[in-house]
Amino acid sequence: MKNQKYSSTVIDQDARRELTPLKLRAKASRFAKATVKNQMASFKRYGVWGDWNNPYLTLDPEYEASQIEVFGQMALQGYIYRGRKPVHWSPSSRTALAEAELEYPEGHISKSIYAIFRLVSAPVTSGTSLEDFLPDLCLAIWTTTPWTIPANAAVAVNAKLQYSVVEVHSPLEDVSKSKQNEKGRLGNALKEQKNLFLVVASDLVPTLEAKWGLKLVIKKTLLGSDLENCRYIHPIDKRECPVVIGGDYITTESGTGLVHTAPGHGQEDYVTGMKYGLPILSPVDDDGKFTEEAGQFSGLDVLGDGNAAVVRFLDENLSIIMEEPYKHKYPYDWRTKKPTIFRATEQWFASVEGFRQVAMTAIGQVTWIPAQEVLYGKEHNLM
User: Fold this and answer.
1) What residue stretches are annotated with the Aminoacyl-tRNA synthetase class Ia domain (predicted)?
2) 82-93 pLDDT, tens per residue?
């Protein structure tokens, strides 16, 4: 009965568009009050003690007024600003979703690719030069979301991992045919490229040799930190982009050890992008279609023909080593049962930089029961 009652509040797209802000808030208020009433009755049955005649409700006018007052003070002091940040977005519902509104069903299959981005400068910091390998040196990346490559702003590496420059030897004809017959498909990156050198994580060289059916000969090794500030040409719009240092999310468990980074389409990418001041590109509209900012892909569905078009363009321009289906868990909209995307949207932010120390001083004057010395010791993580 609980699920049936909740599902009755879900409205179709046409009815949603007809709702004015005031009508929507009134509808939400009625639903919230009914839920509070049901929850209160349940608590009483369970024997939970509480001041049931004076509940703490965020929709009370007094509470709303106090919040508006605080917000106004923050706005006047410049703490409130407009910005963009990636969120889970449902094209089928045309709305952002919280983590609790996502499902991760088994069996989702993505079109994954191993792609290459050509380096144009390699100012390695350790004194080991990679200039001798230019212009034939490329970064090898792996992604399950090729549609995000138009928004690529960097390639991230793990500063502590060891990387190798490998020379690619073309596969024998029988090996190439066997790969074409498997689930994976070799791309056109090897065509018309007599000399090709790739940067990949050293630990993944044997794995990539087996997967691609290519012989990879190690020519040089270096740390990820040595690759910072190398620059490559974006494979679609030909702008220069940097190699940056990412976090511990970059491992050798899969892929190549280098991560295609689009700050407008991923939380970890966003954090790395903020660190380096990267542009937050997100040429995708509310319906999950490419905008005019995506050029030739404008109007295409990023989870459908748009994704395929990006893969096709990269392959035609000799930028794909392999394409293969990848089965994994992927976030779906719990209402429509359709896949979601990560997409940067305009949002309001509240900066704590201007009053961080004031807040920490106030917290330090609070008597915690039980004592919270350990919690307070993590103040920088909390604030």
Assistant:
1) 12-372
2) 989 999 999 999
Q: In the prediction, which pLDDT does 179 show?
A: 52
Q: Please report, for residues 27, 58, 61, 71, the alpha-carbon distance to residue 65 in angstroms, rounded to integers and kept in the order given.
A: 20, 10, 6, 10
Residue 61: enclosing H or E segment and its boundaries? helix 61-76
At 229, list the tokens: 């500030």
**With contact defined as beta carbons under 8 Å apart, do 153 and 281 qualify?**
yes
The dihedral through the CA atoms of 239, 259, 88, 307 has a sign that is: positive
Query: Whose CA is closest to 77, among 382, 380, 352, 383?
Result: 352
Find the radius of gyration of the CA atoms of the chain: 26
In a 10 Å sphere around its CB, with 0-12 CB exposed, 13-18 middle and 19+ buried, how is residue 157 labelled?
buried
Give all domains of the chain, ordered by start, each with its CATH number.
1-59 (no CATH), 108-328 (3.90.740.10)
CA 318 to mean position of chain CA atoms: 26
Query: Could you write out the DSSP letters of every residue in 175-220?
Result: HHHHHHHSSSEE-STTTT-SS-EEEEEGGGHHHHHHHHT-EEEEEE
The pLDDT assigned to 361 comes to 92
> What is the pLDDT averaged over residues 237-254?
95
Model's pTM, two decimal places? 0.78
CB 318 within 8 A of CB 193: yes
- With CA atoms as reference, report the closest residue to 170 among 286, 50, 321: 321
Q: Write out the DSSP string of 289-341.
A: BB-GGGGGGTT-BTTTHHHHHHHHHHHHTT-EEEEEEEEE---EETTT--B-E
pLDDT in tens, 14-44: 777 788 999 989 999 999 999 999 999 999 9
Residue 371 host element (H or E): none
CA atoms of 259 and 272, how far apart (whole Å):
11
Q: How far is the CA of 330 from the CAs of 26, 235, 267, 271, 344, in angstroms?
A: 34, 26, 15, 21, 18
Of the chain, the end-to-end C-alpha distance in Å amounts to 41
